[in-house]
Amino acid sequence: MKYAAIAVSALAMLISAGCGDGGARSDDSAVNGAGASFPAPVYQAWSYGYSNIDGNPAVNYQSVGSGAGVAQLKAGTVDFAGTDDPLSARECADFGLEQFPMLAGGVVVIVNLPGVPDGGLRLSRRVLAGMFLGDIVNWNDPEIAADNPGLPLPDLPVAVVHRADASGTSSIFTDYLSKVSAAWRERVGAGPSVGWPVGVGGQKNPGVCNSVARIRGAIGYTEYTYAKEAGLNMAMLETRDGAFVKPTVEAFSAAVSAADWLNAPGFAVMPTDLPGAGVWPITGVTYIVFRRDGAQNSGRLGVMIDYFRWCMTDGGTAAAELDYVPLPPAVSGLVLNGVLGK
User: Fold this and answer.
1) How far apart are CA 180 and CA 165, in angstroms?
2) Last residue of a domain, which of 267, 294, 313?
3) Is 66 in contact with 171 (CB distance < 8 Å)?
4) Strands 218-223 and 98-111, how do they pair?
5) pTM as predicted
6) What is the CATH number of the domain that holds 56?
């Protein structure tokens, strides 16, 4: 569709610039959102599509990172926030917020290794954690070589790139590392901002992509669409079952389907390191948070609800074109009839 193609073009500019906003028209009646860069390409496609339907007001979405978006919502400067790090029920209650899942996608490991083909590198759970801990410091380390027989690994230092801002993508990635590595869990832990043992920081997903593309021997993590658009080399990862899987939309969908949605309070799932054949181990869900009774929503709550419902129904094609994964029908039905049906 036209607006999906426009979002892909906008994504290319985001990656090259390292920042950006939704690009929609702005006026006093516009509904404004801000937050996670993980879903920004599809949110910007949706904003364009919805805002250009005759009679609809403008909807803007600014990619500032999950932590900054939620902070702006709490401060009353935006109408809704996007976050990949779901808020707890207590935090929602304390600030009068409502939260629901919107869609899912994959977090991938990206590398800059001369001579290594895209998808040719295999990284085990132990090795990936060791690299981000700073315990594995060179690409020709015997542990990496053991997973990659015959692959020409360069004699280069491992240059870790991580997020510098409070990030839902980091929450997903560090949640995974905490599940697969006791050393990571004990020394670093999980969350949107952690004390990274090694490496350099990049602002938002585009900043990480830029740094990995620039630094020989770099390794980082980002949402799949950013890596695909930037043409970056993505590694295969070891699953809980001991197999190596490539990052594909089908693998992300397998993780979303395997998640225990119905037993998660507020649908707050983190589908990382799930069992099953072909399941991508670092899959994340992105959420919308809004304040139903907030002063900043006066006169715009109905528009927001209509926009969210449109995204979950008519916006499905754009999401698929940008390699995101819609919610399972049972979950989207509960959201449409529950949170968005009030």
Assistant:
1) 24
2) 267
3) yes
4) antiparallel
5) 0.86
6) 3.40.190.10
